[in-house]
Amino acid sequence: MPTEDPTDEEWESFLQNPEEALLKCLPSQIQDTKVIAIMDVLSNHSPDEEYIGEKIEPSWAEDPVTKAAFEVFSGKLQELEGIIDARNADSNLRNRNGAGIVPYELLKPFSGPGVTGKGVPYSISI
């Protein structure tokens, strides 16, 4: 868009073709492609990424109290995933079904590799 103090030429050009002025403000296709590629790389889950509640640490498995607590925690996460899947499948929930509505998967506890939007990893991607 025109600067705060546009020259007469800039202002006249803006008035004649405001769409062109707007397009000059947007990034080029090459800039956009670079940003998208970088965001894709930074957002991918690693194939060996570990998710919370998925595997018990070997040192935790030695203590029966800690192991039992982990198993309860892991069971609750699996229960939550089941609740999310059940709600996604419930046709009475109108915000979860219909044309163009994708199922909710953002905080499903477990995920596979790639950009899935699922999983709660021990560490985070950008």
Automatic annotation (TrEMBL):
Classification via InterPro entries: LipOase, LipOase_C, LipOase_C_sf
Molecular function per GO: metal ion binding; oxidoreductase activity, acting on single donors with incorporation of molecular oxygen, incorporation of two atoms of oxygen
Keyword Amino-acid biosynthesis: no
Domain Lipoxygenase: 1-126
Keyword Aminoacyl-tRNA synthetase included in the entry's annotation: no
GO terms classed as biological process: lipid oxidation
Name used for this protein in its record: Lipoxygenase 7, chloroplastic
